[in-house]
Design brief:
It is a single chain. By secondary structure, the protein is α/β, with parallel strands linked by helices. The protein has a single domain, classed as 3-Layer(aba) Sandwich (Rossmann fold), CATH 3.40.50.1820. Helix content is about 40%, strand content about 15%. The chain has a 9-stranded mixed beta sheet with strand order 1-2-3-5-4-6-7-8-9, with helices on both faces. The termini are far apart. This is Alpha/beta hydrolase. Pfam families: Abhydrolase_1.
């Protein structure tokens, strides 16, 4: 895609005749039915054009997606939440519709990109929600800039430390959520589908990602495939930095805003989510059951419940 992107509609990317596979009551069946959704871009201080998805009006709510994810995955979620908020989803560098570059592929730079997005939008304070790697981006943001500009913080199912150190106890591993002893082999399993074992990389994320057990999620994944052309040559570059950071000190000492954590019974790092809720003052923890699609993709598989829970939390934090 040529940069910069002028504001455009999702319909312009897929055409008038693109239909999602499932008709859901109250939800758009085509991108053309969600005219309020637009896509724009801005240029960062290190000269990278980043795209962001936008819908709604009022109080700003900014989503930071996980690794390899993008705004298209948030299609139904944006439709629901845009009735209450001015919703933004940032396509981080090398993902979604944002520019592919060979530099700045560190979580700390991604955090700076979030800060510069808010500055571009002239947003002094917002509710932020980080999912998966997007949660790590928000922890980096807080580590660098504090919680200034963050009204509330929402975290969806991210381990504080992916890499497990050999001298850790099992309890420490569980609290950190660590699930790999070889970052290089974990990255290969993520980017090249190289098979590994549970002692090297113990998670079921790909299994849950392939489970199209929700019509909302199936619709969103279909849209992602139609809109985004991922290139693992670029996407994988942030993974080593992502996997080798340990954010427990930030989580223990630097989060002083209302915080909610979302996880589920399918999560490989549920113990770490419980640990986070115990060390962040007054944190709220939601654990979705398996019947409620309580896996790593809970916000996209069960967007009605997630949106209601998130809205209730934000409203409660403001009262």
């Amino acid at each position: 895609m040529t940069f910069p992107i002028n504001k455009l509609s999702l319909q312009s990317l897929v055409g008038d005749d693109f239909y999602l596979p499932h008709e859901i009551v109250g939800q758009p069946l085509r991108p053309a039915d969600f005219q309020a959704l637009t896509i724009s871009s801005f240029r960062t201080s290190d000269d990278v054009h980043l795209s962001y998805w936008e819908a709604g009006s009022g109080r700003p709510l900014i989503f930071i997606p996980g690794w390899s994810a993008n705004g298209a995955l948030y299609f139904h979620l944006m439709h629901i939440l845009s009735k209450h908020y001015h919703v933004y989803v940032l396509d981080v560098r090398n993902q979604g519709l944002s520019q592919r570059v060979g530099y700045g592929t560190r979580i700390s730079r991604f955090a700076m990109d979030v800060k510069e997005l808010a500055e571009h939008l002239n947003i002094a304070q917002a509710d932020f929600c980080g999912w998966s790697m997007g949660a790590s981006v928000m922890w980096a943001y807080i580590d660098l800039f504090g919680t200034q500009g963050i009204r509330t913080l929402s975290i969806i199912d991210q381990a504080p430390s992916i890499y497990c150190h050999a001298d850790w106890s099992e309890q420490e591993r569980l609290e950190a959520g660590a699930f790999t002893t070889s970052v290089e082999r974990m990255i290969a399993s993520y980017t090249s589908m190289v098979e590994t074992n549970q002692l090297v990389s113990a998670n079921h994320v790909f299994e849950r990602a392939m489970a199209l057990d929700s019509p909302y999620y199936h619709n969103a994944m279909t849209l992602v495939e139609a809109v985004v052309d991922d290139d693992m040559t670029f996407t994988e570059r942030v993974l080593f930095d992502h996997a080798t950071n340990d954010w427990r000190d930030v989580i223990r000492t630097k989060i002083d805003v209302p915080t909610v954590i979302f996880s589920g019974e399918y999560s490989d790092w549920l113990d770490s989510q419980r640990w986070m809720s115990s060390v962040i003052p007054d944190a709220v923890l939601h654990v979705y059951t398996k019947a409620e699609h309580g896996d790593h993709f809970l916000a996209f598989k069960n967007p009605e419940k997630f949106s209601a829970d998130l809205h209730a939390f934000i409203a409660g934090a403001s009262s």
